[in-house]
């Protein structure tokens, strides 16, 4: 049977405004999301019974049982498959590792079987619908309302994770306010300078509670901001991964070199 190779890119929340809370406890978001050229790799083959092998430099500690989001994605599609998941992204890191893996599997099985993806995979995680869209988008609601955004410039970026896992639910619970202002409207077809100017005026509302839970995130942000050419530094998702944006690839690569520390995961990448 045919083996399919899929790429599951890191998701970066360039902004993340928490604008309200639903009765069921989930928070309402307003977030600009882009995707990196670093990510996990998945190979998948339909089978009579599902199986999962996890490999790769960041594979340690990732569940191999039915709780892994790739197996839950196969189940959701009513299928069975042998999967190898090569982990390059840190887990529980705010860059959507598990959600992006799940979205890659959903999309591979949708293409293979012609079956639709139930509810854009939202039941697997709030980040799954935007990962399924797989391109720059504004995400609203609890994650189910995804509006693709065209005309953004590619961004040179450094991702830095200090090796501490941050549980998403706990960070949301630490928010002082749930009803923060939404994003300003995004300028149409912004060039790099205009996008940076706009981004600097927006926020990640989860940064403060994440830093309270893991103060090293504050250090990471300061260290990124101090690298040559850094135009802005912010946390992605619920952390602990933070990003820096640069005008050139050379600056992003030089910054990645300077940010290497024992136990830190650092990647120079391009966002689109
Ligand atoms: C913070 C973000 O990464 C931003 O992109 C996502 O909203 C989180 O996406 P995710 O990791 O796929 O999240 P889920 O696995 O669905 O939810 C984990 C936990 O985060 C909290 N959660 C998540 C999404 C949301 N809109 N409101 C929430 O309050 C809930 O406590 C939930 O139990
Ligand atoms: N395929 C997978 N890759 C990584 N973690 C997984 C996977 N499937 C299940 N998990 C579990 O999900 C938890 C969250 O991991 P994930 O990488 O999705 O991070 P996240 O911070 O929730 O991402 P985000 O909030 O940006 O969507 C981990 O602690 C891990 O035990």
UniProtKB/TrEMBL annotation:
Residues 191-261 form the GHMP kinase C-terminal domain. It comes from the Bacteria. Residues 68-125 form the GHMP kinase N-terminal domain. Its EC number is 2.7.1.148. It catalyses: 4-CDP-2-C-methyl-D-erythritol + ATP = 4-CDP-2-C-methyl-D-erythritol 2-phosphate + ADP + H(+). The active site is at residues 11, 127. InterPro entries: GHMP_kinase_C_dom (IPR013750), GHMP_kinase_C_sf (IPR036554), GHMP_kinase_N_dom (IPR006204), IspE (IPR004424), Ribosomal_Su5_D2-typ_SF (IPR020568), Ribsml_uS5_D2-typ_fold_subgr (IPR014721). GO terms for molecular function: 4-(cytidine 5'-diphospho)-2-C-methyl-D-erythritol kinase activity. It is an enzyme of class 2 (transferase). Belongs to the GHMP kinase family. IspE subfamily. Catalyzes the phosphorylation of the position 2 hydroxy group of 4-diphosphocytidyl-2C-methyl-D-erythritol. Pfam families: GHMP_kinases_C, GHMP_kinases_N. Keywords: ATP-binding, Isoprene biosynthesis, Kinase, Nucleotide-binding, Transferase. ATP binds at residues 90-100. Pathway: Isoprenoid biosynthesis; isopentenyl diphosphate biosynthesis via DXP pathway; isopentenyl diphosphate from 1-deoxy-D-xylulose 5-phosphate: step 3/6. This is 4-diphosphocytidyl-2-C-methyl-D-erythritol kinase.
